[in-house]
From TrEMBL, chains A, B, C, D:
Pfam families: Ion_trans. InterPro entries: Ion_trans_dom, VG_K_chnl, Volt_channel_dom_sf. It is found in: Membrane. Keywords: Ion channel, Ion transport, Membrane, Potassium, Potassium channel, Potassium transport, Transmembrane, Transmembrane helix, Transport, Voltage-gated channel. This is Ion transporter. The lineage of its organism: Bacteria, Pseudomonadati, Bacteroidota, Cytophagia, Cytophagales.
Amino acid sequence: MEASPQPTSPGWRLRAYSIIFESDTPAGRTFDIVLLCAILLSVLAVMLESVHRINSLYGPTLRAIEWVFTVLFLIEYVARLIVVRRPLTYALSLLGIIDFLSVVPTLISLALAGSQYLLVIRTLRLLRVFRIFKLGQFVGEGEFIVRALKASRFKILVFLTAVLTLVIVIGTLMYVVEGGQNGFTSIPQSIYWAIVTLTTVGYGDISPVTVLGRTLASILMILGYAIIAVPTGIVSAQMATPSAAAPPAYKQVICHVCQATDHKPEAEYCWRCGEKL
Amino acid sequence: MEASPQPTSPGWRLRAYSIIFESDTPAGRTFDIVLLCAILLSVLAVMLESVHRINSLYGPTLRAIEWVFTVLFLIEYVARLIVVRRPLTYALSLLGIIDFLSVVPTLISLALAGSQYLLVIRTLRLLRVFRIFKLGQFVGEGEFIVRALKASRFKILVFLTAVLTLVIVIGTLMYVVEGGQNGFTSIPQSIYWAIVTLTTVGYGDISPVTVLGRTLASILMILGYAIIAVPTGIVSAQMATPSAAAPPAYKQVICHVCQATDHKPEAEYCWRCGEKL
Amino acid sequence: MEASPQPTSPGWRLRAYSIIFESDTPAGRTFDIVLLCAILLSVLAVMLESVHRINSLYGPTLRAIEWVFTVLFLIEYVARLIVVRRPLTYALSLLGIIDFLSVVPTLISLALAGSQYLLVIRTLRLLRVFRIFKLGQFVGEGEFIVRALKASRFKILVFLTAVLTLVIVIGTLMYVVEGGQNGFTSIPQSIYWAIVTLTTVGYGDISPVTVLGRTLASILMILGYAIIAVPTGIVSAQMATPSAAAPPAYKQVICHVCQATDHKPEAEYCWRCGEKL
Amino acid sequence: MEASPQPTSPGWRLRAYSIIFESDTPAGRTFDIVLLCAILLSVLAVMLESVHRINSLYGPTLRAIEWVFTVLFLIEYVARLIVVRRPLTYALSLLGIIDFLSVVPTLISLALAGSQYLLVIRTLRLLRVFRIFKLGQFVGEGEFIVRALKASRFKILVFLTAVLTLVIVIGTLMYVVEGGQNGFTSIPQSIYWAIVTLTTVGYGDISPVTVLGRTLASILMILGYAIIAVPTGIVSAQMATPSAAAPPAYKQVICHVCQATDHKPEAEYCWRCGEKL
């Protein structure tokens, strides 16, 4: 068990590994595309089942489809476990957990009705989509966005802390000013309103009525309108700096198993899960 | 059939070509401006016809105007086909198809009531407006925006994939949390709500009621407020880079027939439809 | 009549000019501050008069205040006309017209009730506020914003044309898809809805109900969320370019009469109205 | 009284100072984290008390918790006063006032019911959170944002003045156009609507009904959608400039007492409150 996919293992295992985990060979690429379609179809089935009218007409069919996909994904999950060099590392990696959670809810739904809706967690499996295009530009571009966000994470955290403080203080003020009869029935409720307003969503389910309340709300709106410039400015400035535009000499490669990127140019094994690159 | 507008063709054809397709001559400019006014008026007529009160008063007049414009546009379309060097290339180019679709709905409306509203597709003909100003700055500026968006297309796609995944997962969670009695009647419905919230539109036709739902909604709103920084940052950074600011030495010229730009400096024929520049 | 404020004119005229039009002397500064307070108070009086409850209590008082301010502004306007070198140029400049319009509505309201609300046009007189701070940073900063917007005007126009075309086409589609019973009673109405949605305002007075309509609306929302990046990117890139950051060697001076800026360093007379700087 | 925390003072005072005001020692760090938890819990207690259902069940418990925290914070406040070198400077600094206001409302609530909600002012004490992480990146990043905003303050003020003028003029126009029966009952009300619309919040509690009103509203929305580019552009450009990216050689240090930053590299005492750094 020193090398990935176990060099001393029989030929079928090596082949299976390259089909299931890689997408350089035609077979591997086909496998990935079929898998993506299966994921999309199964998510669609879960969605349609939730629509009352469709459920009353085609309910049993949809539930059958769900079971078929669940069994298929279960087989796929077991196959991944068998074929990979370090099953435990895979099982505990982010993608491994998502793969596991994509199968479980249907089984639980036998005991607990309603839990099958958790199947939409399968949507997260679509993240694999990027592997298929790994030779394309997507990895680099995704990397670029993630790197810019990472580099700005302290600034964004400072910004969010300021926003939360503002929202709590103004929310409480509005609770005192407007009072329960205008919809501001409690401080958490008022904070919810303040978030709805500051982010310029503005449902209108709660809205100020008194003159003082409207004045406060106007100030909050103009603040929200102005301070959206802060995160935007942070990310723009980060993306415009040369260091972000010209990424360091990382290998543009994704680990087959845990999808980690940012490998050093000379790396032969994934720095996160130890899989061979 | 070697040169555009057919050098061996009679003089009237050459003249007609320069009037209909070019706008360098006074006659060509006048033709274009008259055409734009006709397009605006016909779109206005279609709009007014849809207003119940106006329709009951001036319905027949508006329908007559529609027919007059349709016949005029039909004549224009046929004239374009006759005069152009490669009629088929024109007919299959984007602008050719739009010109064709601008005429068809009125004819169909004889058989199928209501289809005349598709006439607003004529609005797309207004894209020709840029040709009139081709000596001005518009081509360059339009080019600039399109080039910046093109250069960011992978980043924007990655961003949209992330947004869609987020919206599906949170939409389903809200369906489980809030349930049908609060308006979240199905998963697609909840996803619609999540899009309305994340994009900060916030109609308020569906809005969370439970404490857990409101907490989730607050997180989604703050996320939506923060991640709008990503597309903005991408486009800003792209536009601020020197390569985007100083465009390559392309010819600032639009093809008369298919409106293609980005011709090489030494190009004499359009790279897309083969028309003479 | 060669020089501003008429060198051959008596001393009182020169003094009056420096008080009314300039703000370098203590007297001129005091005049400007008193004027600004008067403008703010008179606008406030007009606003309060429109509130029913306040009007029924203090109506006559408010109307008296209005008349006092109108007479004062009329005197000021006449004084400006007498004192300035070229009365006609002042009267026809933007600020001269605003000064005139600030007086007229009260007079008209004698004949036509309701017209006194047009007095809020006085708010525009507050633009003079920048003159008071002319030694400060405001002129430069205002200049900076205006210059960046001017430099981007073609890009913004192209963007607005694209937005309008999009809004017309999607508005009409929604009219066909949703129909009158869901609030989309006419094409102009649907276009209004499309603008409300694209700009992420989202009143919720009209909102889609059918599945197809909601799908279309979702696309429009995500588009609106994404394309806001375009104007932001344009202005950011413009402001970040060195040419915008380091303004050319213009004189940081505002014309006393027409408030024009951007004078050449060696200029002694305003390029717009001919007043001495 | 020459040095902070009074070098001639007994050892316990020096120790107490380093625990309460600094966070370099384990004891000081523990004190700060306990304090933050206490603040969060006490704010939570105030919030929950405002929820009617929770109040009727656990009201007395919550009020007891409030009193416990108030007494603790009072002790802490007195300790700070005793231990600090210049008690008056601390008491009059921003943080000193916030610390004082965090204790007072509970005492007042004995006489005046409802005033305990002002306790959320305690949230502002969370600003201390940044001190704990002072060795981290937070100070620098917070500094970066504040410096960019400060550098843009004139531009933002000019922008806000323009926005307010726009909102007043359009608000009044809408009042004249729509009139009271459509919700635009007074000019201040209409200005409130204009702010709700321009900032793209869009509650929908007031929305235009007439054709002219909707046209005006559409223009305002597109304006609001476009001019959000201005503050964003200002802050982005400011953050992208090298002078902002590479901050001057200030000491990355916060004053223990008044939280001032931006100290000169050679500074040994806080420039604002005179405390030893």
